[in-house]
Design a protein that fits this description.
The protein is of the alpha+beta class and 138 residues long. It has two helices and eight strands. 15% of the residues lie in helices and 50% in strands. The strands form two sheets. Strands 1, 4, 5, 7 and 8 form a five-stranded mixed sheet that branches. The chain has a three-stranded antiparallel sheet with strand order 2-3-6. The termini are far apart.
Length: 138
């Protein structure tokens, strides 16, 4: 009978062992050399960093859908990861590459949720990016 009291406690604490983290936007990152060498019709790779430090990830997934309305490029980036329980010192980046095709030279506004970045294609100078973008390997 004494184990009957333990079961409700396990049910209360079980969800905390596998905490799930959800993201629906992130920092917009671009490769400066790719911007400088851009030519009409090139694809543009935009990386969205959803979390710069997933703590002890067990399972993770990220995706990106792109829609364009004139000169505005909307990145619908999202991701999720489940944190492992127990002690751990792992820290990994959760990011997703969004490929934008069919662009002509010109000025564009790139959006991911509340994040916005103005770019000119081609662009000789690197745009000012969030320091979070330093973790992206091009």
């Amino acid at each position: 009978m004494r184990y009957a009291r333990l079961v409700p406690l396990l049910l209360v604490f079980a969800p905390a062992c596998a905490e799930q983290h959800n993201y629906s936007e992130g920092e917009i990152c671009l490769d400066a050399p790719a911007l400088a060498s851009f030519a009409a019709g090139d694809e543009l790779e935009v990386v969205v960093v959803l979390d710069d430090c997933m703590a002890c990830p067990k399972d993770f997934n990220a995706n990106c859908e792109v829609d364009r309305q004139g000169s505005t490029i909307n990145l619908h980036a999202g991701g999720v990861y489940t944190q492992r329980s127990g002690p751990c010192d792992t820290c990994l980046t959760l990011s997703v590459a969004c490929i934008v095709g069919g662009l002509e030279p010109g000025n564009y506004t790139i959006r991911s949720g509340d994040q916005t970045l103005e770019v000119k294609l081609p662009q000789a100078e690197a745009p000012k990016l969030d320091p979070t973008c330093d973790v992206v390997q091009w």
